[in-house]
Amino acid sequence: MSSDTTLHDLCKGFGALLSRSKNPSFPEEAARLNERGNLPLHAACSFQATADVVEALLKAYPGGASQPNSAGNLPVHQAAMWQAPVETLEMLLARHPEGTSVRNQYGSLPLHMAASNQASPEVVRILIDSYPDALHLQNDDGMTPLDLGLADESASEAVIAMLEGRPPPPELTRRQKAEKYEERAKALERKLGSLKDTGGRQGKDLHEALLCVRRLADRFPHSLYAAGLDPNELEIAFSERQQPADSILLDAVKRRSAAVLRDSRGAPLTVQSSMLSSHQGPRDRVEDLLASIVGLDHVKSQVRGLRRTTEISDLKESLLPTLTSNRRGTNALALISPALSEDTGRPRANHMVFIGNPGTGKTAVARLLAKAYHELGLLRKPKFLEVERMDLVGRDREQTILKTQEVLDEARGGILFIDEAYTLGMASKRNRIDTGADAITEIVKSIERAENDSTDTYPLIILAGFPVEMQTFLSHQPELRKKFDVTFEFSDYNCEELSKIFLDLTAAKGFDMDDDLSEDIISHLLEQETTVSWRTERNGRVCEQLMAGCRTQVRRRMRQAQMEEDDEFDPNLIIRRDIESVMSTDFK
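Structure (tokenized):
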């Protein structure tokens, strides 16, 4: 099993880390090493953490920027190798500017790492400006950064130009980039096709590569979405067995459709259709689910971090059987990249605490997580069971234990969402017996049994409630608190987020917006007609109230149109006057 601490794991998704940074023990956790000598800061840089996460780790342990891991890599090496954001690199160099001149145990500088790992031109420029001599220095293999960049055929022309010491060429347009990528993909497909029927070493390598893809398709099919392959179509083709597996995979590569392009936060990118294939690629259901959540980037990043960790685990499992069978007498782990050999054991989703005011989306997000975690293979089924105190607590101890066990059994394999969980710490006013404590004990026992069980039949538990009440409750329940490492704070929605939620809601109900109703206009109206305290009491329920009011306004206009025999009236159109009327009369 991996020696990663909870903080190391949170850095792979990095959203919940910000909540944990408020704990008094955070500075000590930020300085803790795993078995590979990595600090949580190394993990954050490897998994492209946001600037606020890196800032929190540096603030908790300022010396982390200058501390190498077992391979001699500083956090700036990791950031350069794993395409961390520019802001991360700038913060690391502000703390330890000498880091660009430090070599790891392979003699590589951060610029070497960046040049061979598709770093952005902005990152390469910062590293060159910080240590210009790095352009001419060789690593232990005798390679300069330019040699590594040329060997990496995916390095951009701008990066190559900077490594050669000349100005970068003008940036390509989106169309030019799309054409270039398409040309590169076609060249790779031709090369794969030419290797298909060849013998010798190249043919064997191709067969091994296709076997790895097949193992991925079997173990973790969602990873194929990024390549424009539909795992469901592959599964059908494999089951029909009309062709050899290698031929099925190669044919799928040749006819694959364009994948859905997304930005660093997972939102779909808007690209001209002429730049892509004639039809959209296979949908990534997990990203589609995350895209339906407005705001809450820390929750989304945690899910994506779990996904990345799981992919690495499954990729390693898919590679090892081939390597061990074909290269007996060698250490298979030494033949694959360090990134794949680091993590051992498939990750499990942590039990969570959701804290937020009413209407901030705690229940809705938990429902989506049940579906997303099931898609990722972290839950056996997409089941979601919502309960509260009355579903767990009975008149006496025996009835409470029985009811809690029944709920835990019903939620097996899915998510058990306990709303207003702090009420379990309240004694009954009628008989003054604290039967809620017995429910808490059964929940803790269930989690402990799951920790010692390799199956995925136990439920993932989410405790939810209001901020002050939950913090008070958990402070008096130390044993329960230990079992819930991850806490997500659901902030109150601002007007921009409420506007987006309202537009999503109206679209789901089949309504269109008039041309003068944009997201910015609705946000401005909310800002103008409501107060912060009024919105805080309702949050997302503001959108439901606005939707109900707009429906009433549309019906009124429909009756008026019928009286006036207006044939051009659109019953599915919401106009600005509808929204203004609802806000002026109902939002008080």
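The radius of gyration is 27 Å. The longest helix spans residues 297-326.
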